[in-house]
Write a structure and sequence with these properties.
The complex is a heterodimer of chains A (375) and B (376). Chain A is 68% helix and 0% strand. By secondary structure, chain A is an all-alpha fold. Chain A folds into 2 domains: 25-64, no CATH class; 83-371, Orthogonal Bundle (MetI-like fold). In chain A, helix 4 (83-95) packs across helix 15 and helix 11 runs antiparallel to helix 14. Chain B is of the alpha+beta class. Chain B folds into 2 domains: 63-162 and 221-338, Orthogonal Bundle (MetI-like fold), CATH 1.10.3720; 167-218. Chain B is built from 12 helices and 7 strands. In chain B, the strands form 2 sheets. In chain B, strands 1, 2, 3, 4 and 7 form a 5-stranded antiparallel β-sheet that branches. Chain B has a two-stranded antiparallel sheet with strand order 5-6. In chain B, a hairpin with a 2-residue loop joins strand 5 (228-230) and strand 6. Classes of the chains: A mainly alpha (375), B alpha+beta (376). Chains A and B meet through helix 1, helix 3, helix 9, helix 10 and helix 14 of A and helix 1, helix 3, helix 4, helix 11 and helix 12 of B.
Chain lengths: 375, 376
């Protein structure tokens, strides 16, 4: 051993280790997970102390001090959450000002949209290309007719200024998939195209949209789109943020899909072409089904981000769920110290449940795709 | 040939869309008396900005100055937010890997909670539910070190330059230079001979002793004036407006959840064999962390981390919702409403963020080239 190395290398035998812990059962678990050494014991005590501080005050605010019955007067000086406020405002928070008798139309559109998404995103279900056709082509048309109305079919027209609440949030989310995913796929293919001008256009679009904040895209759609198109085509006030959301989502989806395209072995395309498929049918029958299936978890993750971002439309004056919650809070009938917090806690619960469920689902899917034969 | 046709078609279509959109916009802007050029840049703004890092007066400052004020406020909140989010994110990311069950679960709960609730909702909560209902200045909450919290914000003791400032600063720089020099020399000596010379400790001692000595001789470099209630508000301190605090809290707590996940993934990406091999070579746990784990983890952590920094900067535009005067709120909000120059202003604002993003991406690529594994 040379002199240089000798200073780093231990010279003495390491001391013999203690025999392994012989404890078993719950005590062993405690010893291994909570009480390894002095630091760990301190951390455990600190952590438990934090929980002991947090949980009782949360319990008091959410349950024991909360107002469960009564009217606005009961909340005037409430210390806890004012749940009656939420109960009273729930129809408004869900449907906005959409006429009560027509709300079944919203239920049908949202319900069928979700059924189709689940069909599409579950690798095990059969005939997913039928689902894709229904979802990306038939669904938007039917949804538009049902929601906005068609006097010819006996459905009265309901102006978009009456739309609001969770319904609009879900609608924006659905638009985020229905339009952003095909557009994103097209952009991803464009970015990998052999034709330099198409590649350049796709790259510039993707990088520009990803480089600017969502709110600037919304401002662009809201204030400038009406300037750029002829008056006859001027988009509806709800359609404008929807276009912004779809374009913004498409740029992010494009990067996710590009990952899937890159992950696909070249041999797949070569084999398809060798079998005599045209480049278009090789793309449609071999490349895209595989590439899109691998990136379903990525698409879901990207969609979670987009879903949270839809709250920003309330800044440009759309009554999405958060916008409706803010409007409900401003009602002079309901004034109390806890009204604001109650509204935010309820909204947070809603978004948390949606996003957490989606992220768990994508996580499980990812694991299945890694091990299962489908991918 | 088909490729050529497709490309020409694309260019033609794009050109047509852009041209007709420009013509349409030009016509409408003329009809609606919207300004066409950038003349508004030099007009007097006529509105006030609560928090301005450079002198700004409603009566004399221009819209151009308002743009700068907004940009500086954006950079301020981004820099502070990045610092806070990084510290918190690293702590929570490491805590998630703790062998202690309570600590690991608590950090996991933090991450899941903060990243699954929209940032805008969190901001509104901090601002409308926590900071605005705080008591008025007369009933302020008094915090340690003379800080005061009320519905006008957080008032901190105000630092002022004292006579000792220059000598102490000079001693500090001198101490650092000498200390780092000695540390470098000590490292070189150790690498060559394998023997610790102790020079590094002398460097550390110098770096501490020089400024301390200057402090003893010349007195403190700064003196602080405590915030004091005068009339209806506090004076003589540095005040952080509630909008700034809410935005900082929201941005850093939200981004920290994402950074924590990045840090966790980075540390987990270092193969277990690496630690075991280092331990088998006789390195102490601290050295294993410093020499083996951290350098390899950082290679995985830094690219997505920069992405989060960019996200935080872009998300700071949510300031519009709570009225913090950042670039989006001042320029794309107030200035746009007053001048009506929507097209110019939205494009300038987008350009600023795009420039920040592209510049960061460029820097990241250069760094990546340097940090990439050079395999033999």
């Amino acid at each position: 051993m040379n002199a240089e190395a000798s200073s780093y290398v231990v010279r003495d035998m390491a001391p013999a280790r203690l025999p392994p812990v012989t404890a078993f059962g719950p005590w062993r678990w405690l010893k291994q997970n909570l009480l390894q050494d002095a630091t760990s014991i301190t951390l455990t005590i600190g952590g438990l102390g934090f929980i002991a501080l947090l949980v009782p005050s949360l319990w008091r605010f959410l349950v024991s001090d909360a107002v469960w019955h009564g009217g606005p007067s009961a909340c005037a000086s409430a210390k806890g959450a004012c749940w009656v406020f939420i109960a009273q405002k729930l129809p408004f928070l869900t449907y906005g000002a959409y006429p009560e008798a027509q709300r079944w139309r919203v239920d049908v559109v949202v319900g069928s949209g979700f059924a189709l998404i689940i069909w599409l995103a579950s690798p095990r279900l059969p005939r997913r290309n039928l689902a894709a056709a229904l979802f990306f082509v038939v669904f938007p048309v039917v949804a538009l007719i049902l929601l906005h109305g068609a006097p010819a079919l006996g459905l009265e027209t309901i102006d978009t200024s009456l739309w609001g609440g969770i319904f609009v949030t879900l609608l924006l989310g659905l638009a985020g998939i229905v339009f952003a995913l095909p557009l994103g796929t097209a952009l991803a293919l464009g970015r990998r195209s052999n034709l330099p001008l198409i590649r350049l256009t796709a790259t510039i679009f993707i990088e520009t949209v990803r480089g600017v904040p969502f709110i600037t895209v919304l401002f662009l759609a809201n204030f400038m789109l009406p300037l750029f198109v002829p008056a006859a085509w001027e988009p509806d006030r709800l359609l404008r943020p929807m276009i912004g959301t779809a374009l913004f989502g498409a740029a992010y989806m494009a990067e996710v899909v590009r990952g899937g395209l890159q992950a696909l072995p070249r041999g797949q395309i070569e084999a398809a072409r060798a079998l005599g498929l045209s480049s278009w049918s090789a793309l449609r029958r071999v490349v895209l089904p595989q590439a899109l299936t691998i990136v379903i978890p990525g698409i879901v993750n990207s969609f979670i981000g987009l879903f949270k971002d839809t709250t920003l439309v309330s800044i440009v004056g759309i009554f999405d769920f958060l916008g409706a919650a803010e409007a409900a809070r401003a009602d002079p009938k309901w004034q109390g110290p806890s009204i604001a917090t109650t509204g935010y806690v309820f909204a947070a619960l809603f978004y948390f449940c949606c996003c957490y469920a989606m992220s768990r689902w994508s996580h499980g899917l990812e694991r299945r795709l890694q091990h299962g034969p489908e991918a | 040939m088909r490729g050529f046709a497709a490309q020409s078609l694309l260019v033609l279509a794009l050109g047509l869309v852009v041209a007709s959109a420009t013509l349409e916009a030009h016509e409408k802007m003329l009809a609606r008396h919207m300004p066409l050029g950038f003349g508004f840049w030099h007009q007097t703004a006529g509105f006030d900005i609560e928090q301005a890092l450079i002198p700004f007066a409603a009566s004399s400052s221009t819209y151009g100055t308002a743009f700068l004020v907004g940009l500086l406020n954006t950079l301020l909140v981004a820099a502070l937010g990045i610092a806070l989010a990084t510290i918190l994110g690293f702590v929570i990311g490491i805590a998630r890997l703790s062998r202690n069950f309570v600590v690991a679960r608590l950090s996991a709960a933090y991450v899941e909670m903060f990243r699954n609730i929209p940032l805008l909702l969190q901001l509104l909560f901090w601002y409308n539910a926590i900071l605005r209902p705080l008591p008025a200045p007369r009933q302020s909450l008094h915090l340690p070190l003379g800080a005061v919290l009320n519905n006008r914000g957080l008032m901190l003791p105000g630092p002022h330059v004292a006579p000792g400032a220059w000598p102490v600063a000079l001693a500090l720089v001198l101490g650092l230079v000498l200390g780092l020099g000695l540390l470098g020399a000590a490292r070189r000596a150790k690498r060559l001979t394998g023997v610790s010379s102790g020079l590094g400790w002398w460097g550390l001692a110098l770096a501490i002793a020089l400024p301390t000595g200057a402090f003893m001789v010349f007195g403190p470099p700064l003196h602080f004036t405590m915030p004091q209630l005068q009339g209806f508000n506090y004076v003589h301190g540095v005040s952080l407006y509630p909008e700034l605090i809410a935005l900082l809290l929201g941005l850093s707590l939200y981004t920290a959840a994402f950074i924590a996940e990045i840090v966790r993934a980075g540390i987990q990406s270092v193969a277990k064999g690496q630690r075991e091999a280092a331990a088998a070579l006789g390195l102490s746990p601290a050295l294993i962390l410093r020499l083996i784990v951290v350098p390899q983890a950082l290679r995985v952590i830094i690219p997505p981390l920069t992405n989060q920094y960019l996200n935080l900067t872009k998300n700071s535009t949510l300031a519009v919702a709570i009225g913090y005067p950042d670039l989006a709120q001042v320029f794309m909000g107030t200035v746009l409403n007053q001048t009506g120059a929507a097209v110019q202003i939205v494009f300038i604002t987008m350009g600023v963020y795009l420039a920040i993003s592209l510049f960061t991406a460029l820097a990241m690529n250069l760094w990546n080239q340097r940090a990439a594994l050079h395999e033999r």
